[in-house]
Amino acid sequence: MVYCSESRALAAMELFVNLDPRLAPSNLVFITADVPDDVITAIARASLPANWHHYPAPDAIKDIGTEWLDRRSSAALLVPSAIVPEEHNLLLNPEHADFARIALGQPSEFNFDGRMWKGTP
What we know:
The protein has two helices and eight strands, in the order βαβββαββββ. By secondary structure, the protein is of the alpha+beta class. The protein has one domain. The strands form three sheets. The chain has a three-stranded antiparallel β-sheet with strand order 1-3-7, with no helix packed on it. β5 (76-80) and β6 form a beta hairpin. It is globular and about 45 Å long.
């Protein structure tokens, strides 16, 4: 089975909740990725600290990602989404040797609908 990043909506929501509208770039792109299962390490929600989904993220959560990058144990890390806990985000490590096995699609332009910003009619 191949993990395919199909959720533009989740990716957009993850960016949106962390984005200051004054700093929103005008040149966003969306890129799909086909990721083989055997290059993915999954983090179980049950293994995370009780406050894993709080904002700002606790240091323990940041440390998990930093340690994963430092160890270079896999090319991808599947983690629960803090904003939609039933969904997942896939973090990619371009420094890992198996990163070359991930098929990246062509970039396509992405823009937030102006009505998403508070105070916009």
